[in-house]
Every structure is written in structure tokens, then in C-alpha cells.
Amino acid sequence: MQNELNVAKFGGTSVANYQVIKNCADIVINNPNTKVMVVSAAAGITNHLVLLANTALTSEQISDVIENIRKIEFAILNELKNPSEVEDKLFALLSELESYARHEEINYRDDLKDSLMSMGERMSSLLCAAILREKGAKAINFDVRKVLRTDSKFTQASPDISNIRVLAQQLLQPEINEQIVVTQGFVGADEQGRTTTLGRGGSDFTAALLAEALEAKTCEIWTDVIGVYTTDPRITDKARPLPELSFEEAAEMATFGAKVLHPATMEPALRQNILVFVGSSKEPEKGGTWIKRDCESEPAFRAITRRKDQVLVTVKTPKMMYAQGFLERVFKIIAKHELSVDLVTTSEIAVSFTLDNPPNSMSEKMNKEILVELSNICDVNVERDFDVVTVVGNNMHSAAGVSSRIFAAIGDFNLRMICFGANVHNLSFVVSNHQSEDIVRVLHKALFE
Ligand code: ADP
Ligand code: ASP
Ligand code: MG
After folding, report:
1. Rounded CA gap, 291 and 381, in Å?
2. Potential cystine with 224: which of 4, 13, 25, 440 (Cβ 3.0-4.6 Å)?
3. How far does residue 392's CA lie from ligand 1's centre (Å)?
């Protein structure tokens, strides 16, 4: 049974300094149903930690990066009314951070990287809880690793949903009966208690997972924009916030590049029918987007997204004798590496598909291995420097005139691949990364302005 509980998540810019954390504390305190506050690392911290984790730095360079981190955290600490209450704990966290950063195997061991990357959220939850207390609320900082059980796939761990539910009911529920619990997004722990992380932007996912485990009614994602927009407001100032979205539309948008939500956020919300709200922590009075099962309207066009850093792989078997079972062999190799393929087109003897390939990422590493394996069974052609632009909407396969409006707008651009029809919510194009912003703007103008 659902209760009235609300889980509120605050992203990096929302907890970047003392002043903005105070806004977040007000948002939490003003809603008596908010008993769980999930926080990201302060803006910039995770990027510093990624640098420490992935780059071979000199001892001096490591000191410089740690000093940058220390400055951000101490700027918050020093504005607290009673800094001594948490000062020792912050020092301890910073020295733990330094021990990972200076570990001789830090650049090679993903388990160490995750311990290091978790430090941003561990520091910000300590400070956010202190700010709630100084505003008169009863609040504790709770170590999410006690409940957020994951597998051991470091840097990209998957949650163990049934164990999270049991642990949250056992260990978190009694705490929220007493006070507000401030906890870390992005971070988890495997069965052996080793620290894991859920992938970049994973704090949204944490909030939804905890909301599911605690059977919450709502989950709020507080960020730097007043909701989910028709497209990324950084691409065009004509983008406008959407009052409502369905779980499916939101999931589609997140998967195809709308960074405002981590792609997995909608899974727990959908399973448990939790209302998800997206709004701005700086301007909470402006409202935001409600994501829900049933929307009042189901427009053919809802939004446009862009996902960057794609490679297009085409595999071909020159020998017809391989044609049967060829697709199976190709996808077995991809599945073995636990990668998901989102866009695929096929012909009789060839298959083209996109792979996520952000520079210096885990996927980039795995893609290289996949390509080697594929080249053992077929001809492989790799084209780089693509983005995927997606129109998200409803009943796109059956609504009249959908494709003519879209192609009339962008027919002059070179569309390397088009995927339409497999999903009623999505029409995607693989396009050159030099043209993707223009394509988004032109499409936005044709469909929304
Ligand atoms: P947080 O740190 O709060 O998690 P993010 O930077 O991860 O915030 O996500 C918010 C950003 O997502 C916005 O500043 C915006 O540029 C980007 N964004 C991309 N697509 C959209 C969209 N369709 N609607 C709103 N924001 C979007
Ligand atoms: N701090 C993590 C990141 O920057 C997780 C998050 O903010 O959601 O990716
Ligand atoms: Mg985010």
C-alpha cells in the first residue's frame, strides 16, 4: 500500500553552495511528507573525482585537484552556524578521499574508483543534513550503502531491487518515522559491502529506487530547470517546459539523451506507479513537470532529444551460408558484453546499429572488444562522429501526417539512418554530430513553435 511519503532528490547545482542548499532545505521542510532527501555531490566535485580516478597524475597535480574539492566543501562548511558539529567528519571524509586518490592502483581498479567517486555524495549529504538541522528540522545523514544493494559491476552497478526493498523497510523506515533522512544518490554497495556507483547522473535513479522500496507516493527531482522541456533549453531558448509527461515518454526521452533524468529513473516509478515531479530548486514556485501513468493529453509530438557520441556499426556477411543465424551471432556477442543496442536496421545480408561511445568511457572500452570479436565472423564497418536525434510522442506509427511534417522540415539534412515503427513513442535519426543541434532547432520550430 502506498503512503503519502515523498522522496526529494537535489542535483549538483542545487547543492553547489550554502545559499542554494538553504533553498533545498526549505523545499524539504515545507512539505511534511518529504522524509527522504537524496543529494548529489556539489556541482563540479564528481568531475574532479573522475579526473583523479582515470588520469595518471603527478603527486602535485593530485594535491591541486584535492585542494579544489576541499575549497568547495569548506566554503559550505564555513557558512554553517555551527561548523564544529560536522567539521571532524568532513576532515575524515577528505582524508579517506585522499587515500583513494593516492592509491597506486587507482587508475586500474574499478572498485577503488567507485570508492573514490562516492566521496562527493558522502560529503554533500553530511553538509545538507547539518543545514536542515540548523533550520530547526530533525535530520540525520544516513549511509545509503546500508540499503542500496547492487551487483559488483563497479562504475555501472545494477540495483538488487528485492534486497533494497527488504533493507530499506528494515533500516530506513524506522529512521524516517523519527526524522528527515538525508542520504547519498549515485552510491551503492555490493553483497560484500564494497562501494559501487550507478553510473553518471545516477542520483535520480537512487531517488526512484528508494521511493519504490519505501512505497512512496511521489518522487521529486529538483534540478536547475523548471521541468522537462520540449527539448534541451541549452540548444534553443524556444524550448518550453511541459506540464505533464507519461512514464513511457519520459523513459524514451531519458534513454535518447534528455540529461535531466537518468535513463533508468522511470523503471521503479512505473513498477510502483509513483508520481514523479521535475522542478527547479531555485524557483520552486514556478511548478514543473508531472510524470505519471495517464496524461490528460497524448500529443503526436511531445519533445525532441539528442544523444551524443554514437558510432554506427555495419556488419555484413559476404557468404550467404552465414545468413541464417547471422543476427543471432551478432547480438550474442553484443549481449555477452552487456551492452544494449537502441537503433537497428537490417537488410538481407547486413545489419547496422548504433553504440554509445562517449570518450574515455567504459562503453568505449567495451566497444573495441566487441568490434574485434565481430570481425572474426563478418565484415565490420565503423562510422564515427554521429549523434542521434529523436522525436518523442504518441501513436506515431498511426497518426496521420507524422512523417511528412518531420521530413518536410529536415529533408535537406543528411540522415544517415532512420528508425521508425518499432516503438509508438519514438522516431530516431542518426545524423552527423556537426548538424545535430541545427536539426533539433529546425525540428523544434516545425513541431512546437
Ligand atoms: P542535476 O545536476 O540537477 O541532476 P543535470 O545537469 O543532470 O541536473 O540535468 C539538468 C540539465 O538537463 C538541464 O540544465 C538541461 O540543460 C538538460 N536537459 C537536457 N534535455 C532536457 C530537457 N528536455 N528538459 C530539461 N532539461 C534538459
Ligand atoms: N554526482 C554524480 C554525477 O555527477 C551523480 C549525480 O549527480 O546524479 O554524475
Ligand atoms: Mg542529473
Report:
1. 40
2. 13
3. 17
- 444 alpha carbon, distance to own chain's centre: 24
Where are the CATH 3.30.2130.10 domain residues in the chain?
302-448
DSSP 3-state of 279: strand
Cell of 413: 539534412
Cβ neighbours around 413 below 10 Å, total: 17
Residue ranges in 135-202 assigned as alpha helix (H): 161-167, 173-178
- In the reported structure, the alpha carbon of residue 340 is separated from the centroid of ligand 1 by a whole-number distance in angstroms of 23
353 Cβ below 6 A of ligand 2: no
Residues carrying CATH 3.40.1160.10, the chain: 6-223
- What residues contact 424, with CB distance under 8 A and at least 6 apart? 394, 395, 396, 397, 398
Cβ of 223 below 6 Å from ligand 1 = yes
In sequence order, which ranges of 298-379 are alpha helices (DSSP H)?
A: 326-336, 362-375
pLDDT score, position 329: 85
Q: Which of 170 and 320 is assigned the larger pLDDT? A: 170
| Tens of pLDDT, residues 50-77 | 999 999 999 999 999 999 999 999 999 9
Numbers of helices and strands, H then E, in the chain: 15, 16
Q: What angle do CA 257, 312, 250 make, to 5 degrees?
A: 20
In this prediction the pTM is: 0.95
Tell how far the Cα of 31 is from the centroid of ligand 1, in angstroms: 24
Fold category of 6-223 in CATH: Carbamate kinase (3.40.1160)
Q: Is the CB of 46 under 6 A from ligand 1?
A: no
Topology classification of domain 302-448: VC0802-like (3.30.2130)
Q: Is the distance from the beta carbon of residue 13 to the nearest atom of ligand 1 less than 6 Å? A: yes
Nearest CA to ligand 2 atom 9: 200
